[in-house]
Backbone:
């Protein structure tokens, strides 16, 4: 049987996710659970380190990359040890090149497959679908992301809260980072309005996860049927990633089906469009390619064939002035697919 | 669905804000631990924080303790000073004022006081303490927030007899959510009246969304006070554009569903047009009535230009999705771009969703 995944969700470093996770791990251990620490990032925090007392730690694996030694979780060693429960800090971590798997969440997936229960920690800004929103609010482009479906598949998401004021106090007291780093952090990412916005996102996301689980197992009635189908029109435009994330998020909330279409002008597909298609597949969106002379007509035809209820598009690039009398692709689709809802996703800029 | 007052600052609003600011200066700070059910651990978290503050040199006393305290709470409280409670567990305000600590720890914020007390409710005692410059740390469950009691009753079929107004929670300087999986609450001998696992999950969602709404408002106030233009908020805000010709029913239904699913806000607006004929006027009135029925905030906008009126309003209201009817794309004079095209081009802060035009 597959192991159970429990995620401690927070909104920033220092809110106490790891502490809370270890506290519960200790309680489980004292009740007799066969539990190991697979990976733990102490960050020099004394109170947190004290919480690991008496726990078995699976040593990390050393990997040399670009002339430096890196330490990663030794997934294979944990699999050999096969405990009942493994504690794995920092779910969104990206492994150093040369590791077995690209991402830690994939390591965790391997542990779960082997029937090991996993406790892990995650900050809300690492959720793929919130990437643009986090950037918009904080100005920071988070590079390490976890696809939403991975988090949706967790058996339990616990929200770990601390007020922004208390968090900033902890930073000031040097509990979270060394003093110099703390000072910098408080002037940048850890400003109060950023923290408040991230915290709200985390609360809403935790609530969303609960609602999803409640609806997946409705009391008495049959599970909800998919009523809407969202189709994303993919082009090679750079804003496509934003479009994909937004559509995925809306589809998740509306419990709608989600597919993506790329209209190729010829048999070969350009590399950027290929990358976007693969990004979409990573977010569990089924992708389709059709060939067509008229992009708008191909979109409208395909959408009708697939019984799409809503088309998601990015904005068309503005036409040069001498072509202004022509219609953009968006305008053409709007004209040809009058029986469907068409959403033009904002190109949010800072 | 959470409703929000219009955000345009009016003079009365500004005055209230200045007064609130002044009151806050001299007022003690209020921190509330919010839980979704008994046994979630909020009292322990509260007393723990009291203990840590005492260790850091603050003058902390316990003035209200729920009886009987569990062993973990007892262990923390043993290291703290206690001002004994008066008859029937009420806070002994006279004794507390005489002692005048920096910080009071008060469990069971929603308790009522026995007849003849200075205040009928405990939260009013807390307000008096705050007004006298004493900081308060307290704890409450969502079923004791008055505005949430209907929702709680729908989930548990029970209604708590004591409650505090949500506005009091809104005034808190800090709210911390205490979250834990329902199984943890159901372990061992659960008290009678304990909701089942599913009900607990629903209460848990309610508490998280309540906290999110409270801090969203607080964030907005903070941004307003500091003159910061709001960015893309954490909450979805949907604006349905009403015109006489648009398929308002479909747009409003979809808007309602979207707002529900996202726990967001639904707004509807129309731009005043002087030359409407009687038939169009009637249709518009009907659409507006429908919008109100669905709980939308309905706004009438003035402005010579339809597109800029919608854009300005959308930005001011931090809209994330704008719903439009296809019919607007027909309003197209030769060589002029339709309102839909112009809105798509100009609206870079929100998604624009265009709805099919179906004749009613």
Residues:
């Amino acid at each position: 049987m597959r192991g159970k995944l429990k995620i401690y969700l927070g909104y920033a470093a220092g809110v106490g996710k790891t502490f809370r996770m270890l506290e519960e791990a200790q309680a489980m251990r004292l009740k007799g659970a066969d539990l190991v620490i697979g990976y733990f990032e102490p960050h020099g925090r004394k109170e947190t380190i004290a919480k690991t007392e008496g726990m078995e730690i699976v040593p990390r694996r050393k990997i040399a990359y670009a002339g430096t030694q890196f330490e990663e979780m030794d997934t294979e060693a944990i699999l050999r040890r096969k405990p009942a429960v493994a504690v794995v800090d920092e779910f969104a971590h990206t492994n150093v090149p040369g590791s077995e798997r690209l991402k830690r969440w994939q390591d965790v997936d391997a542990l779960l497959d082997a029937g090991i229960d996993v406790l892990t920690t995650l900050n809300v800004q690492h959720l793929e679908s919130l990437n643009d929103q986090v950037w918009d609010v904080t100005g920071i482009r988070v590079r390490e992301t976890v696809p939403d479906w991975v988090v949706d598949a967790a058996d339990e998401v616990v929200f770990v809260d601390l007020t922004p004021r208390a968090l900033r106090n902890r930073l000031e007291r040097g509990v979270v980072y060394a003093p110099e780093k703390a000072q910098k952090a408080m002037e940048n990412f850890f400003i109060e309005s950023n923290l408040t916005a991230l915290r709200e996102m985390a609360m809403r996301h935790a609530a969303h996860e609960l609602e999803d689980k409640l609806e997946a197992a409705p009391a008495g009635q049959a599970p909800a049927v998919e009523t809407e189908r969202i189709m994303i029109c993919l082009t090679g435009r750079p804003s496509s990633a934003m479009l994909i994330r937004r559509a995925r998020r809306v589809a998740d909330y509306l419990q709608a089906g989600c597919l993506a279409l790329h209209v190729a002008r010829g048999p070969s597909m350009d590399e950027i469009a290929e990358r976007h298609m693969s990004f979409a597949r990573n977010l569990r969106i089924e992708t389709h390619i059709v060939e067509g002379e008229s992009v708008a007509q191909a979109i409208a035809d395909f959408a009708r064939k697939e019984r799409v209820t809503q088309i998601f598009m990015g904005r068309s690039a503005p036409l040069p002035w001498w072509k202004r009398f022509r219609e953009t692709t968006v305008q053409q689709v709007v004209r040809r697919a009058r029986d469907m809802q068409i959403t033009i996703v904002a190109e949010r800029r800072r | 669905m959470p409703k929000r007052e219009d955000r345009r600052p009016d003079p009365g609003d500004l005055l209230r804000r200045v007064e609130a600011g002044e009151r806050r200066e001299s007022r003690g700070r209020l921190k509330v631990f919010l839980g979704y059910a008994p046994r979630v651990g909020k009292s322990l978290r509260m007393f723990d924080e009291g203990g840590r503050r005492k260790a850091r040199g603050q003058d902390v006393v316990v003035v209200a303790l729920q009886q009987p305290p569990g062993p973990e709470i007892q262990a923390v409280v043993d290291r703290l000073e206690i001002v004994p409670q008066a008859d029937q567990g009420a806070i002994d305000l006279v004794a507390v004022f005489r002692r005048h600590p920096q910080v009071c720890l008060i469990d069971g914020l929603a308790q009522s006081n026995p007849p003849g007390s200075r205040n009928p409710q405990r939260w009013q005692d807390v307000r008096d303490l705050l007004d006298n410059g004493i900081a308060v740390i307290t704890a409450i469950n969502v079923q004791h927030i008055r505005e949430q009691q209907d929702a709680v009753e729908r989930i548990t079929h029970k209604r708590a007899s004591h409650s505090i107004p949500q506005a009091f929670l809104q005034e808190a300087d800090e709210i911390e959510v205490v979250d834990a999986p329902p199984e943890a609450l159901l372990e061992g001998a659960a008290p009678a009246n304990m909701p089942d696992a599913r009900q607990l999950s629903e209460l848990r969602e309610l508490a998280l969304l309540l906290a999110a709404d409270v801090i969203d408002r607080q964030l907005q106030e903070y941004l307003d006070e500091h003159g910061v233009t709001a960015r893309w908020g954490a909450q979805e805000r949907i604006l349905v554009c009403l015109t006489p010709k648009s398929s308002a029913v479909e747009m409003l239904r979809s808007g309602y569903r979207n707002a529900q699913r996202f726990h967001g806000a639904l707004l509807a607006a129309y731009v005043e047009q002087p030359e409407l004929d009687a038939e169009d006027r009637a249709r518009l009135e009907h659409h507006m009535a429908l919008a109100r029925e669905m709980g939308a905030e309905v706004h009438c906008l003035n402005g010579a230009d339809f597109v800029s009126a919608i854009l300005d309003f959308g930005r001011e209201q931090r809209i994330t999705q704008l719903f439009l009817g296809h019919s607007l794309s027909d309003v197209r004079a030769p060589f002029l771009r339709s309102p839909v095209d112009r809105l798509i081009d100009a609206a870079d802060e929100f998604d624009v969703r265009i709805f099919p035009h179906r004749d009613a």
